[in-house]
Amino acid sequence: MTSIKGMIEWPYPVRYGVVNKVDADVLVLGGGIPGSWAALYAAKEGVKVVLVEQADVYSAGPGGADQFWNVAENPCSKISSDELIQSMEEVDPYLNGITAYVTLKDSYDIVLEYEKMGAKVRDILDEYKGAPFRDEETKFVFYLDWENKIHIMPWGQTLRPALYGALRRAGVEMYGRVKVTSLLTEGGKQGSRVVGATGVNVRTGEFYIFRARATVLCTGHINERIWTYIGARFQPVPILPSQSGAGHAAAWRAGAEFTLMEARRIFHGLAGFPFYSVGRSYDPYYGCTIVDATGKEIPYVTDDGKILKSVEERFCPSLTGKRAYLPHGKEKYARPHSLSSDPIKFPELVKKGEYVLPLYLDLPSMPEHVRNYMFRQCLVSEGKGWIIYKMLTEHGFDPSQDMLQCYGEGVILDPVKSWTVRTSRGGLVHDWYLKTNLEGLFVAGDICFNTLGHTTAACSGRWAGVYAARYAKQSPKPEVDENQVEAEMKRAYAPIERSDGINWKELNAGISKVLRTYCWEWANEEMFKIALITLRELEEKEAKEVVAFNPYELTRVLECFDLLTVAQMVVYAGMARKACSEFLAFYRSDYPEKDPPEWTKFITMRLDNGRVEYGELPIRFYLRPPFAPTYKENYEKFKPW
Ligand SMILES: Cc1cc2nc3c(=O)[nH]c(=O)nc-3n(C[C@H](O)[C@H](O)[C@H](O)COP(=O)(O)OP(=O)(O)OC[C@H]3O[C@@H](n4cnc5c(N)ncnc54)[C@H](O)[C@@H]3O)c2cc1C
Q1: Residues within 6 Å of ligand 1 by CB
Q2: CA triplet 68, 74, 76: central angle to 5 degrees?
Q3: Pocket test for ligand 1, best of 22, 28, 33, 381 (most atoms within 8 A of CB)
Q4: Which residue owns the Cα nearest ligand 1 atom 29?
Q5: Cβ contacts of residue 602 below 8 Å, gap of 6+?
Q6: Are 151 and 142 in contact, with CB atoms under 8 Å apart?
Q7: For atom 27 of ligand 1, which residue has the closest CA?
Q8: Which CATH class is domain 19-116+152-263+422-474?
């Protein structure tokens, strides 16, 4: 045990300043779903692969997978990949058609590969025999859309162990508990070839220099910490608090090109579902019967007001006149919701006394196989939801007898307060090789612009891993710039050199306060300017006063530095889009017109010699020269095997 400056006993040896040098052909940053698949497929190409992960690689990333979304090529699917990609475009013109189409085409392979690795992806024990959401022949169990059978539900808790075993067998060298702090570039120049990265061990504080011929960035997207952290606790959100946009910040400083950093996902109140219990508190329970405190049922309603009585009806799009249900679908593809998900209407009904809070999930009233499917399958299969299941059942919760209370009273009654803003669509621009504008830098998973989902992470990871390995094989030996490393070490260790100063929580709270105050749902030029000035002041003053007394605190401080960079990126991006957009959930009072055709485009930005350079790309730029005009042709051309 090491006692540091009179603070808590730190259980690990502290070795600040110890430098470890690691060489790789392919360096994968972030060991969640995309990083694991990238590392695996790079290793299959016969190159030396190093994987760096801030957490423990075995359980890294949210790994959420109570649903394998959009497995269009599975034998039961009633919708083709080409039909689905059209639907996705209808829902979102800013679609990342590259990662989306690759997912549609490849995700069934991922399901089968997981099975080969030892994960459970079918109902082999016939737990759900005869259930409407199961296919009797293949034994696949389906989620959300029981008719079209596009989204497969695996036994999610078996996926990460299987993947970890595969990584070990493939000989991937893994560095867990190391936080990546920067990307290294040739000659230390912004915009030059990426030749590696630096990192700090989150337990010992040791420094790492990774030198690599090719790098795949898989650090995921940005947590709500950037918007909502108030200094007291992490928000009760499912995204990892450690996902602070480290990859975004490092790539930005290196000169990588970004887009959609102004875009948000705004969750009104209930994110479409009431919250129950703890942790992953909404999605797994979709479709459950909900009652109020007097036992009165809260109906699920279609867009045109039709009440759906049976549980089965809530999962059958044809009954509601829809083509299919997509996880984030709107209009033609939106699933019906309970009345309680309407952030405006429901509070009014409560105030009038029509419903009495709190609400409950009426699990006992539901058919047994559906109840098990909801409470056991959806919850446990969710990346880490089994902890919640275990906690509830060990404390005697029995879904055949007990109801689960909804915790969303405040949320339901105050829709304004409950808005959650996420910057989760902003990411790196890339081509069909998953390569960025920087030589040697590839991306996979949610850090790609407008990308989300387990299957997408896995599919994009495979492509990026293969192409990074092929790039590494023909690229010259990387040279690390000593001055760049030295400067990064100085930056990373500055908070431990101080004996006094502000705490990381204060800095984090300050950053999110600025974004909340000036860039929340509505903003304008003046607000953006004030936000930028204030963030720069934070960077110049408070960020230089923040102190860390152990490697844990140092990690949190470094995350705040990432957040500070990402917050500025959000503001830069917001300033550049001079129009409102419903699609991007982006609103400016000084440019009220919504989605005018001339602004329906990607605005890109990157740093060049420290200056922000803006550019633009047309919608569906990935179907324009130099690429082929159709998804199919590009897929056939770029498919790496
Ligand atoms: C609760 C929850 C439920 C979900 N349910 C589903 C679902 O049912 N179906 C579905 O398709 N998708 C689901 N998702 C989304 C899915 O999990 C992600 O889209 C997918 O894992 C890809 O994520 P990612 O790219 O963010 O990478 P992740 O898998 O999150 O991996 C990123 C990794 O990078 C690491 N990292 C971050 N910064 C650093 C750094 N500086 N240094 C080193 N390592 C770093 C993180 O620790 C993390 O392990 C869910 C997500 C959550 C949070």
Answers
A1: 29-35, 52-55, 60-67, 69, 179-180, 218-221, 238-240, 242-243, 246, 280, 382-383, 445-447, 452-455, 457
A2: 110
A3: 33
A4: 32
A5: 94, 259, 260, 429, 449, 616, 617, 618, 619, 621
A6: yes
A7: 220
A8: alpha beta
Phi then psi dihedrals of residue 568, to 5 deg: -70, -35
Average pLDDT over all residues of the chain:
90
Residue 196: name the closest of 182, 212, 207 by CA.
Answer: 212
Domain boundaries, the chain: 19-116+152-263+422-474, 269-312+334-418, 491-610
ipTM: 0.98
Judged by DSSP in three states, 578 sits in coil
Question: Six-digit token pair at 562?
Answer: 């990432």
Cα–Cα distances in angstroms (integers) from residue 92 to residues 331, 333, 450, in the given order: 11, 12, 10
Atom 49 in ligand 1: which residue has the minimum CA distance?
Answer: 61
Q: At what angle do helices 551-576 and 246-254 cross, to 10 degrees?
A: 60
Q: Distance (Å, rounded) from C-alpha 193 to C-alpha 200?
A: 22
Closest-CA residue, ligand 1 atom 19, reads 453
DSSP string over 468-486: HHHHHHHSPPP---HHHHH
Q: How far is the CA of 218 from the centre of ligand 1 (A)?
A: 9
Question: E strands along 401-510, which residues?
Answer: 404-405, 420-422, 427-428, 441-443
Where are any strands of DSSP class E within 394-549? 404-405, 420-422, 427-428, 441-443, 522-523
CA of 57 to the centre of ligand 1 (A): 12
Please give the average per-residue pLDDT across 28-56, as a whole number.
Answer: 97
Query: Within 13 Å, how many C-alpha atoms sit on residue 363's CB side?
Result: 20
Rounded CA separation 38/443 (Å): 9
* Distance from Cα 243 to the centre of ligand 1, integer Å: 8
CATH topology of domain 491-610: Methane Monooxygenase Hydroxylase; Chain G, domain 1 (1.20.58)
What is the rounded distance in angstroms from the CA atom of residue 223 to the CA atom of residue 150? 28
Task: State in Å: Cα 572 to ligand 1 middle.
Answer: 26
Atom of ligand 1 nearest to the CA of 240: 53
**Cβ 507 vs Cβ 557: under 8 Å:** yes
Q: What is the pLDDT of residues 297-356, one digit of tens each?
A: 988 888 778 888 888 899 999 988 888 988 877 778 888 877 665 656 777 888 899 988
Q: Is it true that the peptide bond before 626 is cis, omega within 30 degrees of 0?
A: yes
- Torsion angle of alpha carbons 575, 580, 581, 587, nearest 10°? 80
